[in-house]
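Fold Annotation — chain and its backbone
Encoding — discrete vocabulary of local shapes
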Amino acid sequence: MCLGIPMQIKSIDGFTAHCEAKGVTRDVSLFMMQEDKLEVDDFIVVHVGYAIQKISPQEAQTAWELYDEMLAAEPSAPR
């Protein structure tokens, strides 16, 4: 299963964006989206280090709410 993570662009340098999601920061390649106009504060979906889609803030929030629900439903790992 593939999973895209919504992240917010904090800065852009060429084809690399420094992004943040839930306190975690990553450098993300914008190479696959070079035809799109991306700006600081935009939300993108990131898959294996590449931005693959621009999304609205509402879509990002909805995705994180669903991910949080999935994680909360997971049984705890055996100790």
In short: The chain has a mean pLDDT of 92. The chain is about 20% helix and 40% strand. Residues 5-73 form a domain with the SH3 type barrels. fold (CATH 2.30.30.140).
